[in-house]
Amino acid sequence: MKLPRISMATKLYAIFALLATVTIALAAVAVVAALVAVALTKEFEVAFAGALSVERSEDLAEARRLLADGVDVSGVRAQLADPDSDLASIS
């Protein structure tokens, strides 16, 4: 059985088509990876904001407890006209 003879131009076109197909596939993989990274970053930002909110609430509760016990840390009492006022105004 004799194999068909393929011209040099046809072989070059086949190689270039294969390279183009591989390049497009790699670009698609990169786009999908970027979208996944964006989603993970968004999730992290939301979780970080929630943790920051919890930390801030805990700090305000601790400051209120310290004020109620009469402990003055960092001159907070000097900033408040009424020690029982809302601590959110100085945070």
Can you describe this structure?
- The chain is mainly alpha-helical.
- The protein has one domain.
- The protein has two helices and no strands.
- The termini are far apart.
- The model has no long low-confidence stretch (mean pLDDT 84).
State the end-to-end CA separation.
88 Å
Mean pLDDT: 84
Q: Pairing-aware structural class of the strands and helices? A: mainly alpha
* Helix run count: 2
Radius of gyration: 33 Å
Shape designation: rod-shaped
Question: Low-confidence stretches at least 5 residues in length (pLDDT < 50)?
Answer: none
For this entry, give a set of tags.
91 residues; 2 helices
Topology:
Layout: H1 8-69, H2 76-79
Overview in brief:
The chain is mainly α. Helix content is 73%, strand content 0%.
